Amino acid sequence: MTKQSVGVQFKNTGKTYFFDPGTLELKPGDGVIVETVRGLEFGTVVTEPRARKPEEQDQLLKPVVRKATAEDLERLVELREKERNAFRIGVDKINAHGLPMKLVGVDYTFDANKIIFYFTAEGRVDFRELVRDLAAVFRTRIELRQIGVRDEAKMIGGLGGCGRELCCASWLREFSPVSIRMAKEQNLSLNPAKISGICGRLMCCLKYESEVYEQAKEAYPDVGTRVKTPAGDGKVTGVNIFKNTVTVELKDTKHQQCFPVQEIKQISSGKR
């Protein structure tokens, strides 16, 4: 018998995890109760059940326990209220202990056997006393998990410099590495205030068009390259892939002039 898998998400923009649907008939949008390493959790189906590939047949996927019932949905509402209460208590306890950390969010597992407190901090924090204090209040397992500032922005949400909801909080499932080179490739201002998101890190959207710019610039000479132009020899000081032009500092006049890239002939590379 061919085994199947179904994609489930636990957050609106969270990562998709795969589970064994067994004989359950599921479709995207269905609420389900699944077994995870954290215990029972409520999730939402995001992909149709599909036959696993031959190389995936032997994978041990945790099962979908059941479709979410009306009682499950009521319990979910209760847990969300408990999370809000736990957040308030967590903030008070952190302040009481004088710890250099910022509470960002709280998650109850669906079976309420564990509460996870997410926080940010500049460095490592000794929170052992805090855990004992919280365990005494809630009388269940407590986990404190330190997250990065990008994860904090994803959890809290907000508006970006473009005026739209943050990509990470609205649709972006996973973070990709972003570098200052991407901003340079796109001729953007290197002012940190203009290329950083509310998390203080380089904006994720710098990644979206980076590959297009890299491919487009392959047809252009590098900055510093010696070239021949209709007005004489010179050195490339800039390119504009939207106007299909190359800016050249002419050797004889030292003036900069723009030329269509088709009129440029490379003499030598500007790289050593």
Question: Quick summary of this structure?
Answer:
This protein folds into 4 domains: about 60 residues, no CATH class; about 80 residues, 2-Layer Sandwich (GMP Synthetase, Chain A, domain 3), CATH 3.30.300; about 60 residues, no CATH class; about 45 residues.
Helices, strands, pairings?
Blueprint: E1 4-9, E2 17-19, E3 31-36, E4 39-45, E5 50-51, E6 64-67, H1 70-97, E7 102-108, E8 114-120, H2 128-138, E9 141-146, H3 149-156, H4 167-170, H5 180-185, H6 192-195, H7 210-217, E10 226-229, E11 232-240, E12 245-250, E13 256-260, E14 265-268
Parallel strand pairs: 8-9
Antiparallel strand pairs: 1-2, 1-4, 1-5, 3-4, 3-6, 7-8, 10-11, 10-14, 11-12, 12-13
Helix pairs in contact: 1-2
Number of helices: 7
Overall outline: elongated
Distance between the termini: 62 Å
Under CATH at level 1, the class of the largest domain stands as: Alpha Beta
| CATH homologous superfamily assignment of the largest domain | K homology (KH) domain
Which structural class should the secondary elements be placed in?
alpha+beta
Question: What is the element string, with H for helices and E for strands?
Answer: EEEEEEHEEHEHHHHHEEEEE
How many strands, what sense, and barrel or not for the largest sheet?
6 strands, antiparallel
CATH architecture title of the largest domain:
2-Layer Sandwich
Rg, rounded, reads 27 Å
Q: How many β strands by DSSP?
A: 14
Content of β-strand:
25-35%
Mean pLDDT: 90
